[in-house]
Amino acid sequence: MAGRGQRGAGGGAEAVLEQDPDLPPVALDAAAVEAEHRRWTPLRIAVWAAVALLGGVAWVVIAVVRGETVNAIWFVFAAVCTYLIAYRFYSRYIEKHVLRPDDRRATPAEYDADGKDFVTTDRRVLFGHHFAAIAGAGPLVGPVLAAQMGYLPGTIWIIVGVVLAGAVQDYLVLFFSMRRGGRSLGQMARDELGVVGGTAALLATLVIMVIIVAILALVVVNALAESPWGVFSVAMTIPIALFMGVYLRFLRPGKVAEVSVIGFVLLLAAIVGGGVIAETSWGAEIFTLDRTTIAWGIVVYGFVAAVLPVWLLLAPRDYLSTFMKIGTIVMLAVAIVVVRPVLEVPAISEFAGTGTGPVVAGSLFPFLFVTIACGALSGFHALIASGTTPKLVEKERQTRLIGYGGMLMESFVAIMALVAALSIDRGIYFAMNSSAAATGGTVEGAVAFVNGLGLTGVDLTPEMLTQTAEDVGEETIVSRTGGAPTLSVGLAHIMQQVVGGSGMMAFWYHFAIMFEALFILTAVDAGTRVARFMLQDSIGNVVPRFRDTSWRLGAWIATGVMVGAWGAVLLMGVTDPLGGINTLFPLFGIANQLLAAIALAVCMAIVAKQGAARYLWVVLLPLGFAAAVTITASFQKIFSPVPAVGYFAQHRAFRDALDAGETSFGTATSVEAMQAVVRNTMIQGVLSVVFVTLAIVVILTAAWATYRSLRSGGAPSAELPPTPSRIFAPAGFLPTPPEKELEAAWRAYEAEHPRPRPHVRSHG
Amino acid sequence: MSGATRRRGLGWFLRALLREDAYERYLEHEAAHGRRPGDPGVLSERAFWRDRTDRQDREPQGRCC
Description:
By secondary structure, chain A is mostly helical. In chain A, 69% of the residues lie in helices and 1% in strands.
């Protein structure tokens, strides 16, 4: 207990947190909680030994046994057993030593309750909300691209990374934001790091948001290009969402489940209808669009969607995507367990060491760790964990389930995406994920390119590509980069074994494309809105009128600037003669991980201020790794002399070629294309410099704040003073026996002291 | 644990997951402060849902990638 008294604003908490003697206890006794955790009954020992044993066997099968094939079920066992052990032991360690939640303190949802934004929410429900808010297309896409290095590096990073980094970040940020009344990451950075660190964090967030939106949009463009079926069904989500919006606003307000079911049925109809329409000659003519046209479509959509009222498009889309997200993920998990696909992929591929893989350029360290961002460590989550969720938490100790546990779930989604992508033939994988610059975009070109890679066990034939394309109802699957189409083929491949047989593959493929496009378009809309507000707030420092977010013209200008920014990056990626995804995706990962480094740096400063120096390593470990990965990756992108890796090296190579009067160079076949490369690489390089500079500023200011706190043995942080709680709820998913007793005491108390009840009309 | 409505079962869980119970939770909050539906300052169901999306217009939240 030494040092407890000097812990930040928690000092003096004891007197303030005197519990109301008329109420049943609002918290379990800390000693009782500890005793419960240490009560090792024979049954518990047996269960945990079994979990450890199964997990150990699964890891041996994945990592050590070198057979021709490996069954996907081992990935599920390795992941789930590791998550269980990490949750039970490591997250508990963080809880006990670093965060020290105190259920005697009221949460913002209790002391700031307003019935709207601040509402105590059942922990299991909030777990679902939080998970739906953090999981998007990211964990589905990154692992697919990283699969070029074999299954093992990605699997290890997704599972170990989440345990030691991603889940830690989410848990810490959620907890610290909750202790600060639900403040955002940007506000916490300003509070804890001062003006310089805070401003750098805000700027970095803004730039990172632009990049993330642009590259997510690029994934959609690549999935929909030359695909009339996909374009039709995804386009139909707009009228469906508008209908749902009007329905909820004017016809039956609040009937969310009802409208979600209607929307889901319409969505399925749009997928089926897309197949029919793509078969007709007029349908194919109208809906077959090239990449540039689709990119412009998304830019226009992004602007319109972000200035339309939320109720009309964004809110209904949210309902649809929550519905689809939870449903599809459960469906895929069940299908993988039922089908147990066999993976014929080497554990570590030829490209892991050389860094010359065609999917994403760069060697395993650091580029594996930026390619798989979401699923292992995602800085974007820090924005969610310091957004809505902390305002809804019922009791402090529940943050472990919601923050740490929620991220473990997302990691599991990433593992399933990896398994689904690896279950398709390796030759097809490379044909789909190598850029058109490499394959020429033709079946013959793809076959020649992939077979020329010299991969063991890969023997691609043109028939395999045309047959797969036919199965999924597409004209071609060559060079469908971006991850989404590959995952969709994998998902279709698995799902058709459960439901519908090979005749249903095309449906499942387009179901998966729709599912990803839905998340991404929602993220594009919401991201543009958030970025617009941040921009308006920043401009407001100079032109005060911009602060007024209800000022239409200002809103339109700010939206236009943000859409212009990500639209420019998107169009650059779409028209890039070098291929787009393989050059831009690392930028996405680097941006996301830099945001994680920023969030962790803020957490480090807070932990140090609370005087928990002995346990600072819990934050230092992921922060050090994220900083090493992103700074190394950024430096390689900036300084590497290898043109495929370094933006400026590429820039120089093409500029020199132009100067030498050449009219084609590498994959660029015209002077215009060469000029485009010169321009694009300069923009990408400058962006890398901006990112890494801002991140370094934030990390240094956090390190300085940490150093000063450590020297003085702690410092006041911006944590709010404690307020005593007047409610009780269990901490974990299932209540423990002592929690059940307390719940019973509360039920008895409430029976004796009935609260005033609203007269809610019964809902038909 | 206000326990005003029955908080268990799959039906409740799915409704809560979709946040369909938001208005009921709001009324509970108002009731705890002695205000009942129809009292001045207490939003009607329609007004509550309008206000809910309109506030998102003013305070947007990001969605994750």
